[in-house]
Amino acid sequence: MPSEEEPVATEPDDASPGPGAPAVATLSRNAVDDAVPTAVERARPRAFDVDPVISWAATFGVTLIAAFLRLWKLDDPKKFLFDETYYAKDAWSLVHNGYVSTYVDNADSKIIAGNVDGLWTGDPSMIVHPEVGKWLIGLSEAIAGMTPCGWRLAPAIIGSLMVLVMIRLTRRVTGSTMLGLVAGILMTFDGLQFVLSRLALLDIFQAFFVLCAVSCLVADRDWFRARLAREAEKRGGNLADWGPRFFWRPWLLATGAWWGLALGTKWSSIYPLAAFGLLFWFWSSGARRSFGIKRPLVKAAVVDALPAVGYVVLLPVVVYLASWTGWLIHADVYEKHLSNNAYGPYWGSYLKHDAHGFFPELVQSLRSLWHYHQDVWQFHTKGLNTAHHVYQSNPLGWPLLGRPVGVEADLDIAAGSQGCNATGGETCLRQVILLGTPALWWFSCVALVFSAIAWIGKRDWRYGVVVVGALVTWLPWLRFDDRPIFSFYAINMEPFMILGAVMLLGEMLGRADASAVRRKVGAIAAGSVVVLVILNFAWFWPIYTDGLLTQSEWLQRIWFRRWI
Length: 564
Prior knowledge:
Blueprint: H1 39-42, H2 52-71, H3 84-97, E1 101-103, H4 107-112, E2 120-124, H5 132-144, H6 148-174, H7 177-188, H8 191-196, H9 203-234, H10 250-263, H11 270-290, H12 296-322, H13 325-329, H14 331-338, H15 348-352, H16 358-383, E3 405-413, E4 428-434, H17 438-458, H18 461-472, H19 494-509, H20 516-544, E5 548-550, H21 551-555
Antiparallel strand pairs: 1-2, 3-4, 4-5
Helix pairs in contact: 2-6, 2-7, 3-5, 5-6, 6-7, 6-9, 7-19, 9-10, 9-11, 10-12, 11-12, 11-18, 17-18, 17-19, 17-20, 18-19, 19-20
């Protein structure tokens, strides 16, 4: 797989450019005696389609396969699974009331029986996550009803679209449509992404929004370099001391919107936003340096990073606040209710000094929302310090699948019941487990180490996307390893792990100009990894889909005691 090295553009000391020649000169050969393209040539997009229709048709083809698997028997099991009991009911209340309301004690059984009347009390509920994901779940419930299929429809659609974005991001990064499709196939057949796409939890939405944000940021990198190259060609290669300024950045605008939606789903999105914001600055600096601009780090901070604050800081804040519109409209309900409990010392003042008029009420609602966020912050930082959950796990083990989450189990199914064909005194069981496909995740761990080495050794920015993306969505959780956190939070690092895996598969495949024998051996090795992932997924299919298994068949799939 070809690498994209970026040598520093230099001015030759012993010669000056002739008439019409570019003022910026680049190194002619790299360490392995390959010709190094000019800065203008390196700034051009890496992926070209002889026939874009075929590329997009293949992309949609893999996406449709993913969608079929995720929509297949989506309403099984016909019950609330894990935290669906909170998000599904909160989402229904959001769509119908404009805010999250509390519900009666036996609401779950009545909903499963098809009764949704009189289950919500009208009193506001103290929720601990932002509302974007719940709005999407509520939208699918409004379409398909308050049923298991209804509250799982939105995650299934988003999980399928995540495959599409994964394909296009990988294609853009590697310059290969084939490797992009491989990335989509790997995500399609990952157990963690598959099961989360069939559950009404928030994490699949957050992972999708983060992936979209990073994809648009990579597209902005290409856009920015292409504009620099265009300006360099216009000026005969002689850019000004600071280089051109580009205040209109359409891809950066899209990035900011996606970051706002990610933050509006879970606050932990702040970590990748900050990390990729810094990476954006370094990319801008590297681009200006490649065109001969001196002191590019400082200049990029002024002409690129500072204007980008509007796109990747202010815009996400606006989108985030907009996602709380329902809450803001009904802020008075929260103020009256929370003033009568122990959620905070500041709610009572709202009842004594109520605002009147649009702008005073808006200011009061925003102030009220800020206080509400303080309560939620207290819950996350102090309210869970003494809590414990049987499936909580140490983040260090997430990439290696150290402790998966069992979201549903139906045990001790007697022989002859529900189709159980157990013999010898065995019983059967059904289970849904949030477990990544081991062949994919373990190979991706090797690929992550390779990516870190390649990022430093090759100075290849693409491996930086892998390393930064994986580490910044993983390592921040280490400081919370003493409280209930779960391995499926790793869904946010999965796209970057897959990207690293595909990059390594590309290296195994070899360069396009390699010998036929080298390419053949590489194709067999890389293809074997992909086939192994698909077969591994198929083997675990019953415990991803609540399939009926005998105890011995189940134990064949539970490879470690920590998986029980």
